[in-house]
Write a structure and sequence with these properties.
Order of helices and strands: EHHEEEEHEEHHEHHHEEEHEEH
Number of strands: 13
Structural class: alpha+beta
Strand content: 25-35%
Oligomer: single chain
Largest sheet: 13 strands, mixed
CATH architecture of the largest domain: 3-Layer(aba) Sandwich
């Protein structure tokens, strides 16, 4: 049987969300490829030019993707900054090169390049480079395994981290400040919680840089939509960490099966002396270990130095490029070498002058 691709405006994604979600559960089972997550991404960050591609083999749906044309000769998976993984799904038994070849041939025009961005190697093994397929490193990202009780996890952490947190907790106790963790599950309470989250970010460095979540900007609407939808399914929550009668830190989280993804965290900089950003992390991990519902927390994003003391392991995310002609990667590499050489010659010429 032949692979057959069909294309639809991504604005019609809701018509096919059940097909998408069935493939997500079968192939990836990750909350950041959940159909609800994708709908919110498209609503807030889509340009209107995205295409939903669905591939069938006979009566079976074997692959699906949201694609955007980046050049008259190139397409890639839709990848707004809020999406940790490129919007592509395929059945594990299907050959990726065959899928990419058939998709490139089916896309309108005569594209030379098809790119799958930000692939998770735990969901899809990194393919070997070959004539038409080349892969590129992206970033290392971390995860926390919760397959042991909290005390074992905590004792295996860096000694300086444990001492630091114990010292902060003693400082709070000495001042008569009681910390507690609140879990918001009610969809009706999400908008107000996101507004609080935005006030914390806006008061900090993200506010100064203009990148903060705000209840009235696209990021605020996106996270409100995502958390409300996931909470309605019983798969989302907002954690709030209180110090006495004031909220000091917040964490946005969504789940699929036994996997939780920490989307964003923020804290009130007025409490920075107590390190509420790390205190909330410890409290959440302890709670999840006790409930035994979640086996892994995905952090996504580039693994930072401070995160390395918390994670159980890391993985290298990657991109996949599929070229229509096998010679194209060599020609592009040659072109880059020529440009690099010309820049070096120009720099030396400027030094002589």
């Amino acid at each position: 049987m032949k692979l057959k691709w069909s294309f639809y405006p991504a604005t019609e994604f809701h018509r096919f969300q059940d097909i998408w979600q069935a493939l997500n559960l079968a192939a990836a089972s990750t909350p950041v490829l959940n159909s609800s997550f994708v709908i919110s991404l498209l609503q807030e960050f889509g340009t209107g030019g995205e295409k939903l591609a669905i591939c069938k083999l006979g009566q079976r749906t074997v692959a699906t993707a949201v694609l955007i044309k980046t050049h008259h000769t190139a397409w890639e998976t839709f990848q707004p900054a809020q999406a940790p993984i490129g919007l592509w799904l395929n059945e594990p038994d299907e050959n990726l090169e065959d899928l990419l070849r058939s998709l490139l041939n089916a896309l309108p025009g005569y594209p030379m390049l098809l790119a799958l961005t930000q692939r998770d190697p735990e969901l899809w093994s990194r393919p070997a480079d070959c004539q038409h397929v080349k892969t590129l490193d992206y970033v290392h990202t971390g995860f926390i395994s919760l397959d042991e009780d909290f005390q074992n996890y905590w004792q295996s952490r860096d000694g300086q981290v444990r001492k630091s947190i114990n010292r902060r907790l003693r400082q709070l106790a000495a001042q008569g400040i009681e910390p507690r963790l609140e879990v918001i599950l009610d969809p009706a309470k999400i908008p107000a919680a996101i507004a609080d989250f935005g006030r914390f970010e806006s008061a900090g460095w993200k506010g100064r840089q203009g990148t903060a979540v705000h209840s009235n900007n696209s990021q605020g609407r996106f996270y409100t939509s995502v958390l409300q939808n996931f909470c309605m399914q019983g798969n989302g929550c907002i954690y709030r960490y209180w110090l006495g009668d004031r909220v000091a830190a917040m964490q946005l989280s969504i789940e699929e099966g036994s996997i939780a993804v920490f989307l964003k965290t923020t804290f009130d900089e007025q409490f920075s002396t107590f390190g509420p950003g790390i205190l909330i992390k410890r409290a959440i991990i302890e709670l999840l270990c006790e409930t035994e519902r979640i086996s892994k927390i995905e952090l996504f994003g580039k693994l930072r130095d401070y995160q390395e003391k918390w994670v159980s392991g890391s993985k290298l995310m990657y991109h996949v490029n599929y070229y229509r002609w096998a010679i194209l990667p060599k020609l592009l590499s040659l072109a880059r070498s020529v440009v690099h050489y010309q820049r070096q010659v120009l720099e030396k010429s400027n030094e002589i002058d």
